[in-house]
Write a structure and sequence with these properties.
CATH architecture of the largest domain: 2-Layer Sandwich
Helix content: 40-55%
Order of helices and strands: HHEHEEHEEEHEEHEEEHH
Structural class: alpha+beta
Distance between the termini: 27 Å
Largest sheet: 8 strands, mixed
Number of strands: 11
Number of helices: 8
Oligomer: single chain
Radius of gyration: 24 Å
Shape: globular
Low-confidence stretches: 193-199, 258-263
Length: 314
């Protein structure tokens, strides 16, 4: 019923837009015949608004995936490079949190491993809000940073990598079979802040899926039960992503298409020295305002990727 309601809204939106265009064309014909300059000026403004509306509608065509309307799980992992890479992972976390804040999305950090000196080794965030997964799904891949390292006394230029994962936060009605014997559950003291309850009780939960080797940790909640439920949600999403990727690769091979090996292809470069630029390797979109991007201004990159998907599937 939810899917049906969404489709009806989409169809109504297109039909309303089509009627607005028809009405504007009819009015244009009359204004030209009467040489009504005032109406022609108003129609020019209306035409711009209609063009923007069509543009937004076309962009929505790229958000037609099964889980695009739903919430997302965002995970960031520092690459090789020690403190420099861990600081870069922290910068990416801030960037995505700021982006989510701009869109009114709720974010919850369910697990975070701090770096030895600065930054973070890894973090998992639940992003809740309409179309969160649809907008974020194109962000998965390796993100590359080039800058003068603040941790290098010689002020040399460093290149760092961090991997971003984006998974759909699955509804409970989507069945993913997980056999109890395939899971090892470990509990331990939470490593972060949380008051006396966290310090005294083993509330953090680590799930290991033995057949795949996937490890999921959650230490955000005070209750061990809540942490276990959250960890199971993340595990279900990771297993679903594996099956989805296998299916896509099989379909691509049947079509005779080249299947890119691995998950970690580099998708974006962030250069802060000797010049400032952020460039997407897939779409070619770039900007010289790196500070704005790192402050959460990601929409131009997300829009460019979504439009590229429309072109590939058309």
């Amino acid at each position: 019923m939810r899917r049906l309601s969404t489709l009806r809204e989409q169809i109504k939106g297109w039909e309303d837009l089509r009627q607005q265009v028809a009405d504007a064309l009819e009015l244009l014909e009359m204004a030209e015949a009467e040489e009504d300059e005032e109406t022609l000026a108003e129609l020019a403004t209306e035409a711009e608004a209609l063009a923007e509306a069509v543009d937004r509608r076309e962009l929505s065509l790229a958000l037609s995936g099964e889980h695009d309307q739903g919430d997302a799980i965002l995970a960031i992992h520092a690459g090789e490079g020690g403190t420099e890479a861990q600081d870069w992972a922290q910068m990416l976390l801030r960037m995505y949190l700021r982006w989510a804040e701009r869109h009114g999305y709720k974010t919850t950090i369910t697990d975070q491993t701090p770096g030895e000196e600065a930054g973070i080794k890894s973090v998992t965030v639940e992003v809740e809000g309409p179309w969160a997964y649809g907008y974020l799904k194109g962000e998965k891949g390796n993100h590359r940073l080039v800058r003068i390292s603040p941790f290098d006394a010689s002020r040399r230029r460093h290149t760092s990598f961090a991997k971003v994962e984006v998974l759909p936060l699955l509804d409970d009605d989507i069945e993913i079979e997980i056999h109890p014997n395939d899971i090892r559950i470990d509990v331990f003291l939470s490593g972060g802040a949380g008051g006396q309850n966290v310090q005294k009780n083993a509330t953090a939960v680590r799930l290991t899926h033995l057949p795949t080797g996937i490890v999921v940790t959650c230490q955000n909640e005070r209750s061990q039960t809540q942490n276990r439920e959250t960890a199971m949600r993340v595990l279900r999403s990771r297993l679903y992503e594996i099956e989805l990727r296998k299916k896509e690769e099989q379909e691509a091979q049947l079509r005779g298409e080249y299947v890119k090996a691995g998950f970690g292809s580099r998708i974006r470069n962030y250069v802060l020295h000797p010049y400032q630029m952020v460039k997407d390797e897939r779409t070619g979109y770039e900007t010289g305002n790196a500070a704005a991007v790192l402050d959460g201004d990601l929409d131009p990159f997300i829009d460019a990727w979504l439009r590229m998907q429309i072109g590939e599937t058309a």
